[in-house]
């Protein structure tokens, strides 16, 4: 049975690799016009549409392109497709606005966000960093959401800061302008754990979660969420001897958000136990997106 499953998995992997290579080969063989179309709509085409386009014979691709834009036309009764015109206009503007670096403006992170969300309501530039000796940074504002770009290599290629990636996904979800697929994967919800022994059979537990990995949602001009922490301590005989459950609310205004760069949200919990060997189970949940992470640790007093 194990050998059979191994064979199935191996064949599945081979199929996926061959399928990926096939689509890559098809894409390379596209005509210049069709290749340009697929490249330009990369921010708004769905995976399903892309796969369908690549599987179509050459004679049917022009009709696909017409239908692609037609179903995105906000007012089909008019001769002008406002969505299409706005999309290509933003590509031109992105190329004009973001000339630094070695990548065309519309392919940079700033260009992508500009195309999808439009011009920001506010734009702040920090050529020497937000702090005195930091990396060059730009902060764009769409409502309460700050979108942060950092030039890590000092050559003008500004990259989207990961905390801002979740803000962008949230904005795209609510957007009635451009409607691409919202990709929320990539945000790793995790925590670091530190135990410190204190006098008198006490122990201090610190749970540290990087702010950039906490999914926040906009409420009343703030970014908020609630973390639910559950701790259980078991004796050497596997008997539960202590438990703890608490909710922690996080609420950040615009000025406070910048202060979270590179920092963690820390939850301290003190425990008092008799001498012995123990096992602790820690469960942390972000109630906004439902993500959970659980860890166990052995310790003795």
Please give a structural write-up.
This protein is of the alpha+beta class. It has three domains: 1-71, no CATH class; 97-182, no CATH class; 192-300, Immunoglobulin-like, CATH 2.60.40. The chain has eight helices and twelve strands. Strands 7, 8, 9, 11 and 12 form a five-stranded antiparallel sheet that branches. The chain has a four-stranded antiparallel sheet with strand order 1-2-3-4. The protein has a three-stranded antiparallel sheet with strand order 5-6-10, with no helix packed on it. A hairpin with a 2-residue loop joins strand 7 (217-219) and strand 8.
Q: What is the structure about, briefly put?
A:
This protein is α+β, with helices and mostly antiparallel strands and 301 residues long.
Question: What's the topology here?
Answer:
Elements: H1 2-28, H2 32-40, H3 47-55, H4 58-70, H5 82-97, H6 109-117, E1 122-126, E2 137-142, E3 145-150, E4 159-160, H7 162-174, E5 192-198, E6 202-210, E7 217-219, E8 222-235, E9 240-252, H8 254-258, E10 264-272, E11 277-286, E12 292-300
Antiparallel strand pairs: 1-2, 2-3, 3-4, 5-6, 6-10, 7-8, 8-9, 8-11, 11-12
Helix/strand-derived category reads: alpha+beta
Number of domains: 3
- Beta-strand residue percentage: 25-35%
Large-scale geometry: elongated
CATH fold-type name of the largest domain: Immunoglobulin-like
Please provide the count of β strands: 12
Q: Report the average pLDDT across residues.
A: 82
Low-confidence runs (pLDDT<50, min 5 residues)?
1-23, 176-186
The tally of helices reads 8
Radius of gyration: 25 Å
- In CATH, what is the class of the largest domain? Mainly Beta
CATH homology group of the largest domain:
Immunoglobulins
Order of helices and strands: HHHHHHEEEEHEEEEEHEEE
How far the N terminus sits from the C terminus, by CA atoms, comes to 47 Å
Judging by the overall fold, what is the CATH architecture of the largest domain? Sandwich
Major beta-sheet overview = 5 strands, antiparallel
Fraction of helical residues:
25-40%
């Amino acid at each position: 049975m194990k050998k059979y499953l191994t064979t199935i998995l191996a064949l599945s992997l081979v199929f996926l690799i061959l399928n990926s290579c096939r689509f890559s080969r098809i894409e390379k063989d596209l005509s210049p016009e069709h290749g340009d179309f697929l490249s330009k709509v990369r921010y708004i085409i769905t995976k399903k549409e892309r796969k369908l386009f690549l599987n179509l014979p050459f004679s049917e691709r022009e009709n696909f392109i017409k239908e692609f834009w037609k179903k995105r036309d906000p007012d089909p009764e008019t001769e002008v497709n406002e969505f299409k015109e706005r999309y290509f206009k933003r590509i031109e503007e992105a190329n004009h606005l973001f000339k630094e670096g070695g990548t065309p403006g519309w392919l940079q992170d700033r260009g992508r966000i500009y195309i999808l969300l439009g011009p920001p309501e506010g734009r702040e530039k920090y050529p020497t960093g937000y702090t005195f000796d930091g990396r060059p940074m730009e902060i764009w504002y769409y409502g309460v959401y700050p979108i942060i770009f950092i030039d890590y290599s000092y050559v003008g290629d500004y990259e989207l800061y990961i905390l801002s990636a979740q803000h962008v996904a949230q904005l795209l979800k609510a957007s009635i302008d451009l409607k691409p697929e919202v990709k929320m994967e990539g945000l790793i919800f995790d925590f670091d754990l530190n135990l410190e022994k204190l006098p008198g059979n006490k122990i201090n537990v610190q749970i540290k979660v990087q702010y950039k990995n906490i999914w926040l949602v906009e409420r009343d001009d703030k970014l908020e969420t609630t973390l639910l922490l559950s701790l259980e301590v078991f004796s050497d005989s596997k008997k539960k001897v202590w438990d703890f459950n608490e909710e922690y609310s996080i609420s950040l205004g615009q000025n406070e958000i910048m202060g979270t760069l590179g920092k963690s949200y820390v939850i301290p919990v003190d425990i008092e136990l008799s001498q012995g060997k123990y096992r602790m189970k820690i469960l942390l949940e972000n109630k906004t997106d439902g993500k959970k992470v659980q860890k166990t640790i052995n310790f003795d007093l």
